Amino acid sequence: MTATASIPAPIPADHRLSVSISGAGGAGAVTVGLILLEAFGKAGFYGAMTRSFGPQIRGGESAVFLNLSDQPIETLPEATDLHLALDWKNFERFADEIPLTSDTQIFYDDSREKPPQGVVDSGADCTPLPLMTTLKQIQGGRVNMLGLGVIAQRLGLADTHIEQALQKTLGRKGEEAVWLSMETVRLGQTLVEAAKRSPLQNWQPTDKPRWHLSGNEACAIGALRGGLKLAAAYPITPATDIVEYLAPRMEKLGGQVLIAEDELAAMNMVIGGSFGGQPSMTATSGPGLALMTEAMGLAIASETPALVITVMRGGPSTGIPTKSEQTDLNQILYGLHGEAPHIVVAPLNVSESVPVTQWALGLAERLQTLVILATDQHLGQSRLICDPSPFEDMAETRGLTRLLAHPNDPADYQRYALTESGVSPLTQPGIEHGAYTADGLEHTETGLPSSSASDHSAQTEKRARKLTEFDYGDDWATYLPAAQSEASKTKRLIITWGSSFEACKQAVARHNAEAKKDEQFSLLGLRLLMPLQSKALRQLCKGHKVYVVEQNASGQLFHYLLSEQALPKSSQSIARSGPILFTPGELASTLRRLTKEGK
């Protein structure tokens, strides 16, 4: 079984709005994006903000992209409706990420560089504004706040919501800073006329509770909900945000955050903290994960609970640290030496990163093993106004705690006993009669080192069996069936994972809204990647044409599913490298082409 829901109706074009802002380092493009997203949230709407920046440690150009709606939205915009260029420095670095059309309205400062030729060639409506000249009218004002005023005026966003957003975003700087920023926004509003018809005119706001968070923050919250007490990490883009969010909160909850000298040390600290009885985790990305593999094997061999969150980025080597790509799946699945069974999970969007992380930490504790939770830069560093996740009690998340043993006699205690479930009795350090040897060597049931073939075979089988025979519940995937009858001659199924899921969901919604029943697609998003639920997958794929969508060049998920005999041999791969991510419109066009060609 899987968690089943219905495919949503596509979001109408007049209920979507995209805004982008770009500028040199220090110009404040990201700040404008954060305030604008918060203001739309205060107005009762939804939104997603992604950002793009270079690999510099400090400074450098940056850009933000917002997709806004009165309905939940978590995908990249198809085209930019409004772009604010605080300057044109190094704009070409973002040119392929900001989709400009003849319908795009661009505002830029007339005292600086002229629009690049590529911008002019797009046919976009480029409107120069006297931003720097106007800024002289208000002492201490910033040009990005003038730009925010221009955007707010053009979109018809109420001052009340802008003021609330300024207070939330800049309030820590004091009331004077908030007042000055709002005065500068009002001055910016005078530079353009309001649209004759506000794009927000027909939008329906909501007053129901929503979350405003990033995917990395969502992972941190999920870990805290799961009882996390120790986080040890070495800083790495794009995962550092997780530890930064945890640091002040862990202290208040009686936990600790440790910054290690390197990734291997961080993983060893996690193992030590967990051995001491405290739920423990680390956060890293591909290069850091590579350095942790030796210690991750120790966690598996010693059956010490450990959670590793890896936020994928472009590779190999240093690659593109600030851009997204689903390219580390092979590393996550196969990167350990020896027979090293472990669990791999992946949230499908930002909001469910909370319960999925809580679930992951619980699985590590309950099954005494290594769990790797995989997200990526897009999922981790995007900010959303979104509904709370519906998976509050995901697979009995709150019940996944350690099975502790309290032996009466040291002669009776077998730390690695061959139990029916494969999960052996675990003691806390300091418990009388509960001492045992825990290291990376193969061992007997008592924990004593052994090179016996029979011991190795028995322990290898036990470590695998406890994972493969555990009941993970229905939430190992989300299944969105098409509205097809059982008699439909042709059935089609999209399988995907991670940050590709939301784009696929919107693409399937758009395609199915216009397609005949025999041309519609169902959608399956995988959360539990290892151990793979192959039998259930084969049952879902039966009678379907299957397509696997993922953001990497080699089709890593596609080949993994084939190798596990979970797919029909006729299945097809829809894969491409990042960092330009799939959009719903692009994928919907692919689905139309596939049905037309009968593939």
Q: Please mark out the parts with pLDDT under 50 across 5 or more consecutive residues, or reply none.
A: none
Number of strands: 21
Order of strands in the sheet with the most strands? Answer: 7-6-5-2-4-3-15-8
Described by the principal axes of the CA atoms, the overall outline is: globular
Structural class: alpha/beta
Rounded mean pLDDT is 93
**Ends: how far apart?**
28 Å
Percent in helix: 25-40%
Write a structural description.
It is a single chain. By secondary structure, the protein is α/β, with parallel strands linked by helices. The protein is 34% helix and 18% strand. It has an 8-stranded mixed sheet. A 7-stranded mixed sheet has the order 10-9-11-12-14-13-19, with helices on both faces. The mean pLDDT is 93.
Short summary of the structure?
This protein has about 600 residues and is α/β, with parallel strands linked by helices. The protein has helices at about 30-40, 115-120, 130-135, 145-155, 160-170, 175-190, 215-225, 240-250, 265-275, 285-300, 330-335, 355-365, 375-380, 455-470, 500-515, 535-540, 555-565, 585-595, and strands at about 5, 15-25, 45-55, 60-70, 80-85, 105-110, 125-130, 210-215, 230-235, 255-260, 280-285, 305-310, 345, 370-375, 385, 475-480, 490-495, 520-525, 530, 545-550, 570-575.
What order do the helices and strands come in, and which of them pair?
Layout: E1 3-4, E2 16-23, H1 29-42, E3 46-53, E4 62-69, E5 82-85, E6 105-109, H2 117-121, E7 125-129, H3 131-135, H4 143-155, H5 159-170, H6 175-189, E8 211-214, H7 215-225, E9 230-233, H8 240-252, E10 256-259, H9 263-275, E11 280-284, H10 286-301, E12 306-312, H11 329-334, E13 343-345, H12 353-367, E14 370-376, H13 377-381, E15 383-386, H14 453-468, E16 477-480, E17 491-497, H15 500-514, E18 521-526, E19 528-530, H16 534-541, E20 544-550, H17 556-563, E21 572-575, H18 584-597
Parallel strand pairs: 1-16, 2-5, 5-6, 6-7, 9-10, 9-11, 11-12, 12-14, 13-14, 17-18, 17-20, 20-21
Antiparallel strand pairs: 2-4, 3-4, 3-15, 8-15, 13-19, 16-18
